[in-house]
Amino acid sequence: MNQDPAKQAWQASVEIGAALPIEEVRKGADKLYRGVRVRNALEYAACAAIVAFYAPKVFTLDSIVLRVAAGLSVVGALFIAWQLHRRATADRPGVAGTVPIMQFVRAQLVRQRDALGGMLWWYLLPLAPGMILSWLGTVLERQPDGLASWAGALLALSIMLAIFAGVWWLNQLSSRKLQKHIDEIDALIGGD
Amino acid sequence: MTGKAQQDARYLAAARTHGAMIERLARGYEADPELRRDLVQEIHAALWRSFAIFEGQCSEKSWVHRIAHNVGVTHMMTGRRRNKLPLVGLDQIAELPDGDDPEHATGERSLSNRLLAAIHRLQPADRQVMLLYLEDLTAAEIGEVTGLSASAVAVRIHRLKALLAEPYSAEEKRA
Question: Do A97 and B52 touch (CB under 8 A)?
């Protein structure tokens, strides 16, 4: 028996812990990934909604520019769905036992950092051509003649670009925060 | 014995041996009793799943600790804990804080409450070392489980020993 009073007190604080019923444990193992599956399903559903919305427009719109814009939006959504599928590989806790805790945590953080840091390329830019061309097509179709209607069109474009820039900036912030944690872990694993 | 039956048997044996440790570890990662129950279930589920691929890559003890802590840390990182106080390092805690119910806690109970209060304030790496140390793992075992360098473990154990000796040195000063 350990003579250290702190260890004794800690180990005496809970002395009994039973195995859970196997059925309950199996159900729990499935539940572990339910959150990830729900999130992925929502993102796929969003991509499917974009495709369903724009695909018919490729054939029905009068304006060639708007047709091309709709086509680019469909291609962009399909590209994002493919990227989500490629990236949505959560670490299984079974694998967690094979590596020490800090390496496991580091791998999780690196995956999140890379997903956030590269979001411009795989999430924002694929949608940009379709959206900008869509704006251009709308402008050409409506042919704004006064200062007010040009201002309205430019405001719409500015808002769209600001949203893109805002999303990118927030992701960069999160990515930098994650990098800070990764650096801290590297210092701990490496030897200070 | 089939693969599944073997997995079940391995899980049951490990859970019986380490069940109490899992309960204590969950207390260290989650203060809320209801969320803690979920965390314990998550750890057991991860443990059961892990025995499908366990082939003696490390000792069973290290394996179980790694699985349990990885689930615990993920639980912390996903922000499900309610305690939003900033987490600190071992070097920033000068003495063991009072537990939740200092009026009614005495002796060992009081000490374990104070240990728990300190654990809940710690950043993940320091929390892991403290929990593993209190489970009586050696410095080498703590390094194997956490992946921290030997010097990082040694520094933390040194700080931990000083912190844990504090109630007794305070008593000596009063005497």
Answer: no
Q: What is the pLDDT of residues B9-48, one digit of tens each?
A: 999 999 999 999 999 999 999 988 999 998 999 899 889 8
Which tokens is B74 given? 């993920």
Is there a contact between A7 and B136 if contact means CB atoms under 8 Å apart? yes
Burial B36-45 (b: 16+ CB within 10 A, else e): bebbbbbbbb
In this complex, do A31 and B135 lie within 8 Å of one another by their Cβ atoms?
A: no
Report the complex ipTM: 0.85
**B19–A18 C-beta distance less than 8 A:** yes
| φ, ψ for residue B136, nearest 5 deg | 75, 30
Check CB contact of B29 with chain A, cutoff 8 Å. Answer: no
Name, in order, each residue with C-beta under 8 angstroms of A151's C-beta and a sequence gap of 6 or more.
none
pLDDT in tens, B86-135: 788 888 887 777 766 555 555 666 888 889 999 998 988 899 999 999 99
Do B97 and B114 touch, CB atoms closer than 8 A?
Answer: yes
Distance, in Å, from the CA atom of B53 to the CA atom of A32, rounded to the nearest integer, reads 17
Q: Cβ(A93)–Cβ(B50) under 8 Å?
A: yes
Cα–Cα distance for residue pair A34/B14, rounded to 1 Å:
25
* Whether A10 and B8 lie within 8 Å, measured CB to CB: no
The answer on pLDDT for A75 being more than 80 is yes
B5 touching chain A per CB within 8 A:
no
Q: Does pLDDT of A35 surpass 80? A: no
* d(CA A107, nearest CA chain B) in Å: 12
Question: CB-based contact (8 Å) between A105 and chain B?
Answer: yes
Estimate to the nearest angstrom the gap between the alpha carbon of A10 and the chain centroid: 40
Interface residue of B17, B77, B146, B169 to substitute, partner A, most A CBs within 10 Å: B146
**Lowest-pLDDT range, A61-70, A126-135, A164-173, B165-174?**
B165-174
Measured at the alpha carbon of residue B140, what is the angle toward residues B94 and B150, in degrees to the nearest 5? 65
Residues of chain B numbered 77-106 and touching chain A (CB < 8 Å): 77
Say whether pLDDT at A192 is over 70. no
